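User: Can you predict the 3D structure for this chain?
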Amino acid sequence: MADEKPAKFTTITDAGVQLIDQLAAKSNTITAFRAVASSAPHWNDSLDDIRAMTDIDSVEQTGQYMGNFNQGTTTETVQIDFNQQELKASYELATVGLFATDGNNKEILYAVECLQESQAMTPSPEHDVNTHNIKIVVGNTSQVTAEFSDADVVSQAAFQANLAAYTKTVDLPKLIADNIPKDIAFTDKPNTFSEQQTFSAGAVDGKGNAYITKDEVPNPDLTGLQPKGDYATHADVNSSLAAYTKTELLNQTLKLLDTTTDVDAKLAKKVTDNGDGTEQLSGKKIQPFNAIPTVIAAGTNIDSLQTTGNYFIEGVTGVTNLPGNGTTWTNILVLRGDSSNGSQLAINSNTGAMSVRGWSSDTKYTAWFALATSNDVNAAKQAAITQADNDTNTKLANYVGINPSTSQVTNHTVKFNDGQLIVNTQPVVTLAGAADPDEATAKTKSSDGLLHYTIES
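Assistant: Here is the predicted structure, written as structure tokens:
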């Protein structure tokens, strides 16, 4: 049963136009047609887009070429039938693609028929067909040699007559059952063999293991085995088991199992992932130090960080209560002691400088204390030594020495360098009339045997 024709138009493709020119020049032929049905609509496509098509998308069914007839010397009408009886599922027919095979056995998309309203194609138990008569230009109808042949077609009556010699599928089981020999062996049922059977390849079980015959079974050596009465029989085992109640067996089994109290005690000691970067350990929420640090937002007051964890100031500004060596790139490690006390360690990620402070009663913070590095200690030590050298040299500059045996004033160039005393002695002048330098005033005496006097200008 054919559907009503909707509004439609047919467009020759660019490849089809080239073949038309060859047909008009009698340099090529059309030897066969083929058509397909598509659910893809092309009604609203531009003619240029349709002419440029080389294939049909969303193909749902292949049509049957039923022949063609001339309409003048340059046009043909090609009949294509789409058999709904062969359909497995329904679809909407929106486009028909007509393919042509030329004399060189090359197939091209020759024409495209576009439907304004798609046709519903549904499976049909009857011999329903959807017929499309596609009118095309061929340039020269004499060059179209494709034709429909009914040489191998039979009538429906003849076809049914031929089928009468065959058994229907529904009748086949009964036909087989009625004609099976009574002495046939079944593989899925017990069989009784009235005669001896010989298996030339040997008998095997379901796993392929070979059976052994009686003459192949070895006689066992029972020497040394206990008499039969020494072994427990099934009755002996059952009698022994009767001495035990099911409750006693159950209690023995239960002793091997953990109680709910045991399980709860074990679970209480486990570490639980809270799913937010923290863990629950012994009922307390903690942040593991190998976790990704929490990034501190701009304007954060460091006093507010009292939860144990790893925090990082990532280039933001406005963070308050940082130590003096803190910058906008600083790690903050928080260690909480109890419910109201703890410590904070700040590490400058650019310089490595570290400071530490503590808090109590949640709000009482100590000052930040900078932690000295080995470089800081060495620099302070050197500065102290240099200052001591300078102070000593200033005092020694006011002293000269007199040798009591020669009455000579000895000029001592004395100075300290890196904590070591350096003395350079040169004779300068002999003091006349100084018979006994010990009588001089403001004298000092050192281990070098010289008397040292203070010279006042």
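Residues 1-5, 425-447, 449-457 have pLDDT under 50 and may be disordered. The longest helix spans residues 374-396.
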